[in-house]
Design brief:
This protein is α+β, with helices and mostly antiparallel strands and 95 residues long. It is built from two helices and three strands; from the N terminus they run H-E-E-H-E. The chain has one domain. Strands 2-1-3 form a three-stranded antiparallel β-sheet.
Length: 95
C-alpha cells in the first residue's frame, strides 16, 4: 500500500485503490453442540473477486477457533463509483 498523509483516512485510501466493502455472513457449528449453528457477521474493505482479507480471516478461523465452519455468504459493494449524470428540467439561480 502506498504511504499517504495522515489527514486522509485509511478507508478512503483503500477505496481509491479499488477496495470495496465486503460483508460475510458466517455460519458455524457450536463446539459443544455441533447440531446447532451460530451466525457471525464479518465486515472489512476487501478486493473482489479474490477477497484476500476474507480468506485470511477464514484461515485464521479454521486455525484458531473451535467452531467448525458450515457456510459463508458474501456481499460486496464498491463504494466509490462514477457519478451518475442526468438532465433536469428547471432553472437554477446562483447569487
Amino acid at each position: 500500500m502506498v504511504s499517504h498523509p495522515s489527514r486522509v483516512s485509511r478507508d478512503f485510501v483503500l477505496q481509491m485503490e479499488g477496495y470495496g466493502l465486503a460483508t460475510a455472513e458466517i455460519l458455524y457449528r457450536m463446539p459443544d453442540h455441533p447440531a446447532l449453528l451460530q451466525t457471525y457477521l464479518w465486515q472489512e474493505y476487501d478486493l473482489c473477486p479474490r477477497f484476500p482479507e476474507l480468506n485470511r480471516f477464514l484461515e485464521f478461523w479454521q486455525r484458531e477457533i473451535e467452531g467448525r465452519l458450515h457456510s459463508v455468504r458474501v456481499a460486496h459493494s464498491g463504494l466509490i463509483k462514477p457519478a451518475e449524470l442526468r438532465t433536469v428540467d428547471g432553472m437554477f439561480l446562483l447569487n
